[in-house]
Design brief:
Pfam family, one: Band_7
Distance between the termini: 96 Å
Structural class: alpha+beta
CATH architecture of the largest domain: 2-Layer Sandwich
Shape: rod-shaped
Radius of gyration: 39 Å
Protein name: Band 7 domain-containing protein
Oligomer: single chain
Order of helices and strands: EHHEEEEEEEEHHHEHH
Keywords: Membrane, Transmembrane, Transmembrane helix
CATH class of the largest domain: Alpha Beta
InterPro entries: Band_7 (IPR001107), Band_7/SPFH_dom_sf (IPR036013)
CATH topology of the largest domain: Tetrahydropterin Synthase, Chain A
Number of strands: 10
Helix content: 40-55%
Strand content: 15-25%
Organism: Paenibacillus selenitireducens
């Protein structure tokens, strides 16, 4: 079902017409009663009934609100422009908010692609763009948005690891922008049935579950230590190479392969060691 425009006229014109009908009807009733004119009395009653019927079609539409009009179960259309209107008498009026709204999901416990239990939550920013679909295609579209948002969040979370320890592919923690974009796309596909437009979705909470949080923290610490060691060794090798190149370029000291190996060993130990190096003074001759 697609949204369409409902027939209506300006409400102030309709209200003026109702007042005129009431005034004329009262005049005819009074005049007919005084003169004993049955035709005036009948016409006055008819005008009063018509005025009462027209009054049932008066409605007010607030800003950023849609008024969905139905007539005895038949969908007539929607009024989106704010104001005062006169529409079909005896029609039903259902209000649908078009304002931008937020939905904060609860913290969900999900297994990531590696099978690790994690806690995840998201916020979804959405608005209704088709009031007819929101009312007639789904039962309680707000509940539909909540359930589909949590379902999409579970599905996306189960496709990726919590942390890309190996550095390959996306991960929930390292690629938040990409994950948010995929979540928004999947949500839009799910919520299009309800006439809802997903403006944005973001992860608001991401953590390992309590039962494995300690073990995963140790793994992260170990990964960080290994990465730091790799950087230190890489820098130490560069420093040793630079030192040997400068000594050979100056020509002040001639180093054979054995002394180069000893120098490299000493420099690497001094640079890579966690503690300050203890100097050893060589008092013997060089040879």
């Amino acid at each position: 079902m697609q949204e369409k425009k409902s027939p209506y006229v300006n409400g102030f014109i309709g209200l003026l017409l109702v007042l005129v009908l009431i005034g004329v009807g009262v005049y005819l009733l009074v005049n007919g009663g005084n003169n004993g004119n049955a035709a005036f009395i009948v016409l006055g009653i008819v005008l009063e009934v018509i005025a009462l019927l027209l009054m049932t079609g008066l409605t007010v539409v607030q800003p950023n609100q849609a008024n969905v009009i139905t007539f005895f179960g038949q969908y007539l259309g929607v009024i989106r422009t704010s104001g005062f209107y006169l529409t079909i008498p005896f029609s039903g009026h259902k209000k649908v908010s078009l304002r931008v709204r937020n939905f904060n999901s609860a913290k969900l416990k999900v297994n990531d692609v590696d099978g690790n239990p994690i806690e995840i939550a998201a916020v979804v920013v959405f608005s209704v763009v088709d009031s007819a679909k929101a009312l007639f295609e789904v039962d309680e579209y707000e509940t539909f948005v909540e359930i589909q948002s949590e379902t999409a969040l579970r599905h996306v979370a189960s496709k990726y690891p919590y942390d890309g320890a190996e550095g390959a592919g996306f991960s929930l923690r390292s690629n938040t922008e990409e994950i948010a974009l995929e979540l928004s796309t999947e949500l839009q596909n799910r919520l299009a049935t309800a006439g809802v437009n997903v403006i944005e979705s973001r992860l608001t909470h991401l953590a390992y579950s309590t039962e494995i949080a300690s073990a995963m923290l140790q793994r992260q610490q170990a990964t960080a230590i290994i990465a730091a060691r790799e950087k230190i060794v890489e820098g130490a090798v560069s420093m040793v190479q630079l030192a040997i190149q400068r000594l050979e370029a100056d020509g002040s000291v001639e180093l054979d392969d054995e002394r180069k190996a000893a120098m490299i060993n000493n420099l690497l130990v001094a640079v890579v060691s966690d503690r300050s190096a203890q100097p050893v003074i060589n008092t013997s001759t060089l040879y």
